[in-house]
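Observation: inputs received (chain + zinc ion).
Thought: call the complex predictor directly.
Action: predict_structure
Action Input:
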Amino acid sequence: MQQVLVLNASYEPLNVCSVRRAHVLVWKGKAEVVEELDRPLRAASSTFSWPHVIRLVTYVRVPRAVQRRISRRALFARDGWRCVYCGTSSGRLTLDHVVPRSRGGDSVWENVVTSCAPCNMRKGNRLPHEIEMPLRKPPRAPAPVLFIHLATPKIPNRWQPYLTGLGDSASSAATA
Ligand SMILES: [Zn+2]
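Observation:
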């Protein structure tokens, strides 16, 4: 299953989609093909190029309200598959609410972190500063690039130039 990388009008990576979806976007004039594969895409009456990277014609703002759902896989990937408190990457990882739910903490990207099971047990119902388990940096919503990597285990070479170096700026743009 070939996937297509979708860029915002600003060239920031947004997500991935199917070839069929990319083709519809291009056909409707909503996107342009930035990279194509040397492989014709045959339809009933004509032949089209095979989109590999497309760019939306109009800039799409990604509102915080529709930020991606939190999954353990995306959370652990955001935190580098390490406990944010002690740094271990071995053992069972868990999802920890920085401000515990029992104390009004929400299930939002800015309030969840990856924690090893022992640290999660130790922290219990307390806040990080109450138990001297400081966070090195405040958690935030991951950049779209993370979800592109999760959706595409093997990133095609020709996508790389569009994905590298954009992680941080894309993330700050999304949380601005
Ligand atoms: Zn830990």
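Thought: report the result.
Final Answer: Residues 83, 85-86, 88, 115-116, 118-119 surround zinc ion (CB under 6 Å). Residues 33 and 84 are 40 Å apart (CA to CA).
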